# Entry
Amino acid sequence: MATKKEEKEKPDFALGPENYKLLGIGFLIIVVGFLLMLGGKSQDPSEFSHDIFSFRRITLAPVVVLAGFVFEIWAIMKKPKEK
# Structure
């Protein structure tokens, strides 16, 4: 009978564990950006609220979301460390 070698093979994932952690961080950055966009509604629907045009909603939040997407791309492209 032929002998079988019992070797525990690690599955070959496209990304390493560090990359998945970085992807999670990038996702959280994107979520924070979308949370910064919340708010600015008026109590009365017939009134116009200028709060929707605040710096936080118009400038800061989109920059944070864009930074999150750039971070995600970097996290995917980063080479995992060799052991």
Summary: The chain has a mean pLDDT of 87. Residues 14 and 76 are 9 Å apart (CA to CA). The chain has two helices and no strands.
